[in-house]
Amino acid sequence: MSTPLDASDLAALAALDALLQTSSVTGAARRLGLSTPAVSHALARLRERFGDPLLVRAGRGMVLTPRAEQLRPRVRDALSLATLVFEDPGAFEPASMERSFTLSMTDYVLRVFGGPFEARVRAAAPGVDLRVIVNAVDDAERLRAGDTDLVVGIYGALPPELRTRAIISERLVCVVREAHPVLAPTKRRLTLRQFVTLEHVQIAPRGQPGGYVDDRLAELGHARRVARAVPFFQLALEMTASSDYLLTVSERIARQLGPELGLRVLEPPSELGLEPYALSMVWHPRFDADAGHRWLREQLVESTQALDGLSHARPRRRLDASDPTAGEASGRRRRKAKN
DNA sequence: GCGAACTACTATCCATTGTG
DNA sequence: CACAATGGATAGTAGTTCGC
């Protein structure tokens, strides 16, 4: 396709995007405000043009061919940019925005920042729907494909084209149940020996072992036993409250849920030298100039700013790498960088 | 297992619109 | 005015679900 674009190409682009997003002729027609035969015609033309069926029947619905899957993010990007050309930058009004955003984050982020963020969005943009999914290994791919609008987590190994903005600093603390049999109630900081002797709960939303803490231990020639790995922060805290396990976790959620769960917050061993880390939001550059998306990003930043600095030192260094599991900023995952 | 009902896509024909 | 492209109306086909 080296010939210049014309008006029908743009219409075809819109039809292709709707087809690839909905995987349905009927759904695309609804989205485009056309009849199904009109979209079916458009699909036939696209099929001829690409020399590929693009959508094939699968039971009651349709599925994308590999070629269509490959086209999907590129078409999304192209259409978003084209849409921006026609957008009046001065006309954006959050109150009249009717739109759905899909956000990827951990239950920790939801628990700590979700309240203020939700209140802001509801008050200023009642027509906005928010869908939250759990951080996953394919967060970057989902951003590229347009399946996720914004990701919040601790990321290092991301494709270079993605935009990242640090929104808040966090640090790690250890928690155990109040009446822990081994640790005296007056104890404020764990020794390294206690840390490696006790059995651990680890938060691993993506199910992968290891992480920042294990890397630090390995550098010191030690290892710990992770007896339980679970995907959710709240669950990990509850498990810790009803066992003798030790949990290393972000300080904010430990302070927030610790008292009601009967948990004690302890400083990690100083030998470990666990650094504060930055929690970031990540988005695809196609949304850079999108007024609605920009507004949503601002709401998230402002929701976290009220919390930042209350009880936390700024990071001594800006962590540029770690792990979206957020519990323990990881260096290991940085290296495996899929893709 | 069979058939009706339902959903979703395709084929055909026709109207409209833009271009030369 | 002829032609091409696009889109709508209608009828038909194909696959799934559900009740008997």
Automatic annotation (TrEMBL):
Region (Disordered): 307-339
Highest taxon of source: Bacteria
UniProt GO molecular function: DNA binding; DNA-binding transcription factor activity
SUPFAM superfamilies linked to this entry: Periplasmic binding protein-like II (SSF53850), Winged helix' DNA-binding domain (SSF46785)
Pfam families, alphabetized: HTH_1 (PF00126), LysR_substrate (PF03466)
Transcription regulation in keyword set: yes
PROSITE patterns: HTH_LYSR
Residues annotated as domain HTH lysR-type: 9-65
Keywords carried by this UniProt record: DNA-binding, Transcription, Transcription regulation
InterPro entries reported for this sequence: LysR-type_TF, LysR_HTH_N, LysR_subst-bd, WH-like_DNA-bd_sf, WH_DNA-bd_sf, YidZ_PBP2
Position of the signal peptide: none
UniProt record similarity statement: Belongs to the LysR transcriptional regulatory family.
Name recorded for this polypeptide: Transcriptional regulator, LysR family protein
Lineage: Bacteria, Pseudomonadati, Myxococcota, Polyangia, Nannocystales
